[in-house]
Write a structure and sequence with these properties.
The protein has 410 residues and is an alpha/beta fold. It has 12 helices and 15 strands. Strands 5, 6, 7, 8, 10, 13 and 14 form a 7-stranded mixed β-sheet that branches. A 4-stranded parallel β-sheet has the order 1-2-3-4, sandwiched between helices. α4 crosses α6, α5 packs across α6 and α10 crosses α12.
Length: 410
């Protein structure tokens, strides 16, 4: 710190600020937290980095801090990882920005913050370099000025940044809530029930990731003229059931910054024919390809993303030199019998050998099982589709180095 001051020529600063990009941001975060602010009397700025270990640390940060990230940042500061931070630290009032805001910059990538260096693994930018640099500088300057002077114009600018970030983060967190609280499996069971949906009462229990060895079967019983169904859910590769992003602040717990979105939402459910049997009905046909139908619904649910994200996905030139977004193809349910429980759904992008052979597309086909007492699916998460629309559809266009393979399993 002393060496930095001498190099700047400012020997008696009144308000010292600390900022860093990527790994530099991680180091700045470590310094500010370890020293409880110390001689950082102004505030901090993290460009393409995140506060560690979780969003709870942001809420008690020793100085005002800006987390600034591009919406095409594919790395450790990708927006879907920062959704718990945004949920925990949204502004307190409509006209006053958060003390420690998470700000998203449109059409900016991680590499824009270190111009001329293409960070391996990052997605290309969708902005000219001078435009991206101007966006980064303007947001940073507005935050500094707002903290230092409380200038009305800078407050207005930061509120506008908050509003833009909200249009991305709010629908993402709404999608996340469906998988974290069991809502998506509940919707899948209602779809399977079909014409009997009004005669079922459903509760869903979400079990921890890695629960497959003792993942309980669904149950159903007729009570008071309704079929009471207990659906059993296990999500893989994302937030755990306790990670209630939307209610984090109120409960005093904020989830760690993982990728957050689940790869697979596993739902053990009751067949339509079994529901009919319990109701005294006869010869009810089971739903055909219900997993496929729910994946298609999840894809439609993902369209809640901001309009510009959807326009980018449908563009022939989504970012600088990028291939068009990978197109989705839905396959019929893949009956696996007893292997269903231990075969969570995955998808592969970016040249992985297990990706579909058809160029520019990937096929989603869910593992499923159908018996007299169970009709179950491993489903694509709605929030994961959101993640796909923003990032994974362009994975084949990521920057690579000679030591880095283009393949990525997500």
């Amino acid at each position: 710190m002393t060496a930095g001051r001498k190099a700047s020529g400012i020997t008696d600063p009144k308000k010292t600020w600390m900022a860093g990009h990527s790994l530099g941001g991680a180091e700045a975060d470590t310094y500010m937290q370890a020293n409880k602010g110390g001689d950082i009397g102004g505030g901090g700025m993290l460009w393409g980095a995140q506060i560690l270990p979780n969003a709870a640390a942001m809420l008690k940060y020793p100085v005002p801090v800006l987390t600034l990230v591009g919406d095409l940042d594919y790395g450790s500061a990708r927006l879907t990882k920062l959704s718990p931070y945004w949920a925990a630290g949204v502004r307190e009032t409509a006209n006053d920005p958060a003390r420690s805001p998470v700000v998203v910059l449109q059409n900016v990538d991680h590499s824009d913050m270190c111009e001329t260096f293409k960070v391996p693994g990052d997605l290309p930018s969708a902005s000219p370099p001078d435009v991206a640099t101007a966006k980064i500088a303007a947001a940073s300057a507005a935050f500094m000025s707002r903290i230092i002077t409380g200038n009305d114009e800078d407050i207005k600018t930061m509120v506008e940044h908050d509003k833009f970030t909200e249009q991305f983060m709010k629908p993402l967190n709404e999608a996340l809530a469906q998988e974290q609280k069991g809502d998506w499996c509940t919707k899948a069971q209602l779809y399977i029930a079909g014409t009997y949906a009004s005669k079922v009462k459903i509760s869903t229990t979400v079990h921890p990731d890695g629960y497959f060895s003792s993942w309980p079967a669904p149950t159903a019983a007729l009570e008071g003229g309704l079929v009471h169904i207990e659906v059993s859910e296990v999500n893989t590769g994302g937030a755990k059931p306790a990670d209630d992003t939307l209610g984090a602040t109120a409960k005093g717990f904020v989830p760690p910054p993982g990728r957050v979105t689940a790869i697979s939402v596993g739902c053990r459910m009751i067949p339509r024919a079994k529901i009919a049997e319990l109701l005294g009905e006869k010869d009810a046909a089971n739903a055909e390809n219900p997993c496929r139908a729910m994946n298609e619904k999840a894809w439609a649910d993902g369209q809640r993303a901001p309009a510009y994200i959807l326009a980018r996905y449908n563009s022939s030139t989504p970012c600088n030199g990028c291939e068009p977004g990978l197109k989705v193809v839905f396959g019929d349910d893949n009956e696996l019998g007893s292997e269903f429980k231990k075969t969570p759904f995955h998808y592969y992008v970016g040249g992985d050998t297990q990706a579909p052979a058809v160029s520019g597309k990937f096929t989603i086909a869910s593992p499923t099982t159908l018996t007299d007492s169970e009709h179950s699916c491993q489903l694509m998460s709605p929030a994961r589709f959101y993640d796909f629309l923003v990032f994974d559809a362009y994975a084949a266009s990521r920057y690579v180095s000679s030591q880095t393979s283009a393949a990525m399993v997500v």
